[in-house]
């Protein structure tokens, strides 16, 4: 058992720090925070990472990955958060990219991987449907074979950032005769294809990130199908496990804990800093203890992945604890803001206009944060998975 | 031992329930909060006609002579319907301050107009640094002849946008957090030197930061005694707490019922999600949360008229703690059990949750009241 850093690791850490120091991550984050400049900010930032070769470090080196060790990934993530640097948008780089290089053919790799790496293509994830959320396998968007094409009909919902997307990766039904999990195929669909419409869904934090995507007789070349027809479920499942480790966000939570510490030493209650308040100290350290455990839980999973063991049901644990901790942090932050936690500012309006600098963002984070226990497979579903696969119940 | 409503209270409850069920809707509420002042002035007139603006005031002041239970009955229904109204700031805070502390002539004139729906008021009690402390007051007022001169800033004043008048807490002596030395002054909203910066809260209500620059007000506009404003403030807030907890209970009850209904109709894995035992238990917890809150509310209603002040204070703190904690649980669970739908702006659930959250932060959150309770239960 050893968690200390080697001298190579320390050198790597210096390199990461130097990169973030020069890359102006705060500027990018500012653009990203404003819905009007969100996409621009994200793309600019990812192009910078790509130049450095760090936009998809976890990919195999032959496809453009950095070949980092688990320790290096950990260092990078820690430094990224410390530097207030944005995370990459996951849909291309963390979700469909790995599916394409693992299950796609050479032609597909050549067509799609470069656009993902250089962020010229924006991807979105078309899995969920109005009738198929937790029970994803019951999806009914149909793809009917016609010559070299599929004709796709149906609706996807909760599609994050579909309004910006050039491409959508979809699970569609190519066969309805067998078990629901069979007969699902994995298609890559150009969002500019005639017959696709995107309608916005406003969410409770006042932001438009969710959409409904409708398909009406949309022609998709069969060449855009990943792997075998009817095997889409298998491909998607390997991806879901990966997605769940992404959701744990340990480094972000550590950062938040730190921010909370600073806010609490500044904010007063009855003339006393809140950091001296007994119940605040109790709640804060409760979260801290959980996060200390989660950090090592994550490192254990990452170490197993480095030994090429695929993240199985353990990734469900990370998702459950990670999101619970995020929500506890959001709750404590908004309560620190008192009634200022209810303030709704206009887009881009500084908190100084109301005399409070974190109430508005605390509210947004709290509200949107409620979704973290719902998406990526709800926490109830994760517990069902653990009960079945780990506990054998 | 009798937890039944009187015939009059039953009638009030029926009329409020009828209003929420028939005249009001979530769609109307969403429209109303778009209004400049955050509510529909027409609705306020309707409230006046129904006699609801008079509920907390004594008969000798032209009121209905209602007690804490009457208010509970009304507020619970307003909560169920998520009714956007300045009832709390205008009636329960501003109006009750006048009743508790204004001189007889002022009281008679202003309460009549308030009850008739012709006057809007606000209580400017909060400041940037004050958080949950009522008596952390730095806005200053000094005497100049037979006038007070006010300068400072009040934060997030509810209903400031619509208010014709403010009751303002000011420091007339003592240091920043002293209970003694706080005075209440009645100020015309149009008085020279007052400036409003309008802000929206997540529950749709409009509040404002109100700046006072050498605002002059006659000394006969004192509400309560000079330096003793805390007495009035505390009395008024202690009456408002069960009222907003009753509203919170209405919100929680609606959220619980809506979630139960949704779980019966939403199907996944070929069955209604309400058939999953793990979700059933969670909804039982939501229901229990409502019952606990209701029980503590009854406890407070029973001690409200009694002489044992210490006991009543403890009950109030306990009520705010439970309403805060259980309200959070019910809010979070109702979003969670609705899945993606719970995150949408279109569904009413998120809006009920936001109102609950705002009420939690008003007059002290659960942590704050738990510590206040500890001081009384475990004196050092
Ligand atoms: C902010 C956000 C972003 C999203 N982004 C995307 C995206 O980009 N692409 C995409 O495809 N999807 C996306 N989703 C969809 C997400 O994956 C689904 O919301 C999720 O799978 C839940 O499905 P549902 O909303 O239909 O809820 P339901 O499945 O209807 O679930 C409702 C409730 O029932 C519970 N439940 C259901 N089944 C069981 C069971 N067997 N046992 C116990 N409890 C159960 C759930 O946990 C939940 O609490 C997003 C969702 C959100 C909220």
From TrEMBL, chain A:
SUPFAM superfamilies: Acyl-CoA dehydrogenase C-terminal domain-like, Acyl-CoA dehydrogenase NM domain-like. Gene3D superfamilies: Acyl-CoA dehydrogenase/oxidase, N-terminal domain (1.10.540.10), Butyryl-CoA Dehydrogenase, subunit A, domain 2 (2.40.110.10), Butyryl-CoA Dehydrogenase, subunit A, domain 3 (1.20.140.10). Residues 124-218 form the Acyl-CoA oxidase/dehydrogenase middle domain. The keyword Transmembrane does not apply. Signal peptide: none annotated. GO terms for cellular component: plasma membrane. This is Pimeloyl-CoA dehydrogenase large subunit. Keywords: FAD, Flavoprotein, Oxidoreductase. Residues 8-118 form the Acyl-CoA dehydrogenase/oxidase N-terminal domain. Belongs to the acyl-CoA dehydrogenase family. One of its GO terms (molecular function) is oxidoreductase activity, acting on the CH-CH group of donors.
From TrEMBL, chain B:
Pfam families: Acyl-CoA_dh_1 (PF00441), Acyl-CoA_dh_M (PF02770), Acyl-CoA_dh_N (PF02771). Residues 227-375 form the Acyl-CoA dehydrogenase/oxidase C-terminal domain. GO terms for molecular function: acyl-CoA dehydrogenase activity; flavin adenine dinucleotide binding. Residues 6-118 form the Acyl-CoA dehydrogenase/oxidase N-terminal domain. Gene3D superfamilies: Acyl-CoA dehydrogenase/oxidase, N-terminal domain, Butyryl-CoA Dehydrogenase, subunit A, domain 2, Butyryl-CoA Dehydrogenase, subunit A, domain 3. InterPro entries: Acyl-CoA_Oxase/DH_mid-dom, Acyl-CoA_Oxase/DH_mid-dom_sf, AcylCo_DH-like_C, AcylCo_DH/oxidase_C, AcylCoA_DH/ox_N, AcylCoA_DH/ox_N_sf, AcylCoA_DH/oxidase_NM_dom_sf. The keyword Repeat does not apply. Keywords: FAD, Flavoprotein, Oxidoreductase. It comes from the Bacteria. Residues 122-215 form the Acyl-CoA oxidase/dehydrogenase middle domain. Its cofactor is FAD. Belongs to the acyl-CoA dehydrogenase family. This is Pimeloyl-CoA dehydrogenase small subunit.
